[in-house]
Amino acid sequence: MNMTQTLEPETKAETPEHLISRLAKDARAAQRVLAGMADGDKADALRAAAAALREDKDAILAANAKDIAAGKERDLPAAMLDRLKLDEERLEGIASAVENVAALPDPVGDVIDRSEMPNGLKMSRVRVPIGVIGIIYESRPNVTADAAALCVRAGNAALLRGGSEAVHSNRAIDAAMSRGLLSKGVPEGAIQLIPTQDRAAVGALLKAAGEVDMIVPRGGKSLVARVQEEARVPVLAHLDGINHTYVHAAATPDMAEAVAVNAKMRRTGVCGALETLLLDANYPKSGALLAKILDSGCALRGDSRARSLDSRIDAADDEDWDTEYLDAILAVKIVDGLDEALAHISAHSSGHTDAIITSDDDTAERFLNEVDSAIVMANASSQFADGGEFGLGAEIGIATGRLHARGPVALEGLTTYKWQVRGTGQTRP
């Protein structure tokens, strides 16, 4: 991280293209050094960064208070303010996540597989860092620390561009992480927070082919759409979470109520939050389940059959089945069995996280096998859609595509591989 790059006026004399090119060149040089650092040295640097986050607690929380105040003045939605807000517990969680990444096995250098050809050539595939990664994100200041930690651990350099709503928080976290990493020998250019909120800098980053190796967008639908439309660099997309939970006819009522309420209401603003509840027409306790959700403070929008179960449910329209609310609002639909549930999910899921609640093992297995989402769950809350909960430490995002990485993207997803070929003088006939 570059502690001198914290004030926008420093960049006003250069174009966004020149700024990104300069930062990327620094990142490339630093990445070569970082890629050669010993496993223990990288881990020590991350532990020092976590300690610095704790030492700078007051400064980080004061910076976050500025962002919260500005967000309220801008009338940001409550869900966005929740994603933005830091307190002592959340900041401790950020520091602990950095330490968790330090404790993970280093994937760099792992031999994926090896073989020997008939001519005696010995082939092996070995994990290596991707290189320079551009990460564009909104709202959640913890991404600054998570991204820095994951990239350092996997030997990558990163250019971080957070949203304007979290600018003070991001800069304070960056300053703390910077001090810790630098104290243990991580090159200064390895992790750089782009020092401007000018949207043109994002455009320049997206077009920096040859200087940046991969872009990771983490934010709302409009951000991801812009990245995918404009990027000239490969993109690892983190799309919206239009997540479903299907309550099967054989669901245990106590489990169905506990899981559905948690999946929606634990934190409504996270990407793993439940957005559409599918209730089997033969599930006998649908009314009680819907009442439990309504009583928890959640508004429901349902089809005609769902509305007949509780007068407090508003009418859903076609748009509701394709909406990521990130709020205390839930779409509800009654379906006639597993096949209709699978068809609805196929038509409307964003491919993020979908779940079933059932005591029927065969039905659960069919759901797990047939739903084509990055994360598919049986009898568990979709709020577990998180790299930390998967034992991966922090995550860079949840990829919903089908290439390179899928689901929670952590250390392994931030590596690629190269072939190493060892011979004894073989020539090709």
Approximately how much helix is present in the residues? 40-55%
Report strand %: 15-25%
How many domains would you count in the coordinates? 2
* Widest sheet: strand ordering: 10-9-11-8-7-12-13
Give the overall form.
globular
Rg calc: 23 Å
Write the element-wise H/E pattern from the N-terminal end onward: HHHHHEEEHEHEHEHEHEHEHEEHEHEEEE
- How many angstroms separate the termini? 51 Å
Quick one: CATH superfamily of the largest domain? Aldehyde Dehydrogenase, Chain A, domain 1
- The CATH architecture name of the largest domain reads 3-Layer(aba) Sandwich
Number of helices: 14
| CATH class category of the largest domain | Alpha Beta
The CATH topology of the largest domain, please? Aldehyde Dehydrogenase, Chain A, domain 1
Describe how the helices and strands are arranged.
Elements: H1 16-35, H2 39-55, H3 57-73, H4 78-84, H5 88-103, E1 111-116, E2 122-129, E3 132-137, H6 142-153, E4 157-161, H7 167-183, E5 191-193, H8 199-206, E6 214-218, H9 221-230, E7 243-247, H10 253-265, E8 274-280, H11 286-295, E9 299-302, H12 304-307, E10 314-315, E11 329-335, H13 338-348, E12 353-357, H14 361-370, E13 375-378, E14 397-399, E15 407-409, E16 415-422
Parallel strand pairs: 3-4, 3-6, 4-5, 7-8, 7-12, 8-11, 9-10, 9-11, 12-13
Antiparallel strand pairs: 1-2, 2-16, 14-15
Helix pairs in contact: 1-8, 2-5, 2-7, 3-7, 5-6, 6-7, 10-11
